[in-house]
């Protein structure tokens, strides 16, 4: 049991009939965190508090942040409730939120992942090969820390032609070594540099948010036809295309907009609430 403690989760349904997946940074949580945005979160929470039981769904975050970073942002935004489950560090970690706000890891998911020492050794070999053989310098995102199953770097853009070539090389080298790789354009609103890409190495078993979403569907015995998801950036696209109803929120990045058409009108939690009301109507007072 992890000692970290979140706010209590939304009420649990008697039977889980559907699942809602949300990216966290710049989707559920706006880094600007204005008074209006905090009010919008509370309006979404009010809806989720009633609807989760009435319509039998569980909601979870699938995020690149770790649980400590999440808790800090939860406090910053004044969130009163937590989701039912949290898939942190790009879905390489799965936690269920208990009634008291403590989080419990899903042991079945942990067993699917490789030995973490072997993963880190292989990832180091990939980064070294990229630097020594292809002159691709990746800058460690040390300010966010490196987790057991996620090693994240920045790739800084020099030219469009060179960047396209380097991205292709990174994908090929990672695949050769059997390591999962996520590459997407950085979002300055989330605190990233402007002219850079996020480069995240993860186990191939957890490569993409869709992988952990598929696991959660299996875990809760929910068919993919009964799923929704919300995101804002390039690393959410696989998730949005996996679920039955996937939406970019109104503040989505230009990269994400070029890859996915379904969008909400509202930004952040306003957009989430907009679509949840369409799918889950007649919420009792």
From TrEMBL:
Occurrences of domain Sucrose phosphatase-like (ranges): 18-277
Q: What would be one Gene Ontology cellular-component term for the protein? A: cytosol
Gene Ontology molecular function: any one? magnesium ion binding
Q: Which domain of life is it from?
A: Bacteria
Tagged with keyword Coiled coil: no
Q: Which Pfam families match?
A: S6PP
- Xref: SUPFAM superfamilies: HAD-like
Keyword Transferase present in the record's keywords: the answer is no
Q: Which InterPro entries match?
A: HAD-like_sf (IPR036412), HAD-SF_hydro_IIB (IPR006379), HAD_sf (IPR023214), SPP-like_dom (IPR006380)
What keywords would UniProt list here?
A: Hydrolase
The family database entries (NCBIfam families) matched by this protein are listed as: HAD-SF-IIB (TIGR01484)
Protein name per its UniProtKB record: HAD-IIB family hydrolase
């Amino acid at each position: 049991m992890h000692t970290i403690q979140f706010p209590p989760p939304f009420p649990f349904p008697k039977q889980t009939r559907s699942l809602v997946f949300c990216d966290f940074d710049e989707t559920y949580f706006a880094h600007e965190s204005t008074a209006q945005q905090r009010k919008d979160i509370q309006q979404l929470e009010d809806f989720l508090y009633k609807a989760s039981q009435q319509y039998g769904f569980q909601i979870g975050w699938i995020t690149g942040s770790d649980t400590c970073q999440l808790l800090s942002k939860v406090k910053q935004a004044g969130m009163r409730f937590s989701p039912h489950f949290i898939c942190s560090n790009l879905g390489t970690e799965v936690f269920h939120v208990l009634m008291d706000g403590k989080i419990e890891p899903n042991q079945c998911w942990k067993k699917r992942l490789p030995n973490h020492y072997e993963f880190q050794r292989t990832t180091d070999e990939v980064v070294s090969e990229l630097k020594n053989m292809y002159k691709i310098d990746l800058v460690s995102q040390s300010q966010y820390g490196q987790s057991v199953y996620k090693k994240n770097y920045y790739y800084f853009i020099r030219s469009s032609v060179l960047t396209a070539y380097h991205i292709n090389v990174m994908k090929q080298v990672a695949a050769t070594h059997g390591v999962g790789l996520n590459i997407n354009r950085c979002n300055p609103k989330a605190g990233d540099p402007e002219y850079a890409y996020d480069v995240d190495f993860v186990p191939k078993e957890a490569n993409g948010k869709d992988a952990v979403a598929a696991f959660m569907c299996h875990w809760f015995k929910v068919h993919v036809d009964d799923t929704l998801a919300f995101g804002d950036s390039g690393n959410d696209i696989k998730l949005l295309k996996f679920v039955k109803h996937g939406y970019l929120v109104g503040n989505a990045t230009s990269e994400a907009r070029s890859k996915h058409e379904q969008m909400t009108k509202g930004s952040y939690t306003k957009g989430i609430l907009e679509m949840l009301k369409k799918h889950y109507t007649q919420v009792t007072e």
